[in-house]
Structure formats: C-alpha cells, structure tokens
Amino acid sequence: GAVVSQHPSRVICKSGTSVKIECRSLDFQATTMFWYRQFPKQSLMLMATSNEGSKATYEQGVEKDKFLINHASLTLSTLTVTSAHPEDSSFYICSVIWGARDEQFFGPGTRLTVL
Amino acid sequence: RKEVEQDPGPFNVPEGATVAFNCTYSNSASQSFFWYRQDCRKEPKLLMSVYSSGNEDGRFTAQLNRASQYISLLIRDSKLSDSATYLCVVSPDQTGANNLFFGTGTRLTVIP
Question: Environment class of residue B29 by beta-carbon count within 10 Å: exposed (0-12), middle (13-18) or buried (19+)?
C-alpha cells in the first residue's frame, strides 16, 4: 500500500498567486520529509528537507522565502509556493524514509502549472 | 559535471529481449546505490538497491563497479509492463536515507 500521499495531484493557478501542497505520511510518523522538484526531461532535484518542529533545510539555490515549508505535525508537511510564476511550473514530489532498510518512498506528486 | 549520468535512450526493444542500462557517478565517496522506476507522470518507485557484490531480483540484475564508478541494470525477458523510465540514484550516506542524487533516467519501451 501507499506510504505517503500528496494533495492536490494537479493545480493550475494564475501568476502571482500562492499554492499550498500537502504531504502526509500514512499510518506512521515521519520526523523528516523531503521535497523534490522535477522539470520535464530533467532529474529530480532535492529542494529542501522538512524537519518536524524545526526549520527546513534548503538546498543551494532554493529560495526559502519563496518555497515555504511547514512541518507542524509528525504526519504532515506542507510546501507553499508563494507568488508563483510560470517558471515555477513543475512536478513537485515529497518523500519519506520508511521501512526496515530506511528507504525513501515518494508521494504521487503534484503537477503545478502557473499561467 | 552532473552527479549521476545516464544514457537517456530511448531504448525500444521487443518483448522477451534482454536490455542493459548503464550509469556513472562522479562522487567517489558515494555509499548507496539504487535503481528506481518512474512511469510517465508518476512518482519514482524503488526497483532495487545495488550492492557491491551485485544482486539479482527475478529478471533484474544490478551490478556496481566502485573502481570505475559505474552501475548497471540488466533486464531479462522484457515484458510490456517493464516500459518505464529507469532512474539511477546515488547517495553519499550508508543507508541512502538522505541526500539522494538522481540521474535523468533512461527511457525503455518494450514493443509487442
């Protein structure tokens, strides 16, 4: 069964609006969640590591004021793309660490299109 | 230079064929290695971890050559359902729980 869910699966918005994406761990507590972005025909790139109860750790080149991450509970992390622009259109995927071998499992992703 | 490099393909093979994908990584300190499978417009799913001694899971065989910083995936007796993009993934961590570096993937299409 699924380990992690994301909502929404698809969102289309106007330039300048903010979009919130939710990532939930299913039936277990995740103190750490990861947020990735994938542009067409490119590799997944880690944006940030979300830590429950503390600030997220952002990768180099990712603007923390533009991509707000909140990990307020052990089962939910949210990514808010603030003042979205067309160049933010991408596939956003979260992941969690789960299982006896500490493997990363990915959510189904959110496809964002900014008009 | 990219952390992980793969031949993007596409590889178009008939059902039943054997196909091999290769991948090279730039960080010699890498500790964990994986192959993920990604279907079109879906999330990546772990196919198998890659161990130094090489490992096999049914029709899939993975090999690691640390000296050459090279990873391979062999698929035998290809099925239509194998059609997907195969991602080579490397991590500097022992468990691969953090810091995953993804290749851009190799697209495979299995033809009836």
Answer: exposed
Task: Measure Cα distances from B83 to A3, A51, A54, B48, B108 in Å.
Answer: 24, 36, 41, 16, 5
Write the residue in A103, A107, A108 that is nearest to B96 by C-beta: A103
CB–CB contact A104 B45 (8 Å): no
Query: Scanning every residue of chain A, which has its alpha carbon at the shortest distance from the alpha carbon of B86?
Result: A43
Exposed, middle or buried: residue A111 (CB in 10 Å: 0-12, 13-18, 19+)? Answer: middle
Residue A53, SS3?
Answer: coil
Can you give the pLDDT at residue B96? Answer: 64
Q: What is the mean pLDDT of residues B72-90?
A: 97
Mean of the per-residue pLDDT values of chain A:
92
Mutation site, B31, B33, B43, interface A, largest A CB count within 10 A: B43
What does the pLDDT look like over B8-39, one tens digit per residue?
889 999 999 999 999 999 999 999 999 999 99
- Give the 3-state secondary structure of residue B56: strand
Of A32, A102, A106, the CB nearest to B44: A106
* Residue A112 clears pLDDT 80, i.e. is over it: yes
Encode pLDDT of B30-68 as tens digits.
999 999 999 988 999 999 999 888 899 999 999 999 999
Q: Is residue A98 less than 8 Å (CB to CB) from chain B?
A: no
Are B96 and A104 a contacting pair at CB < 8 A?
Answer: yes
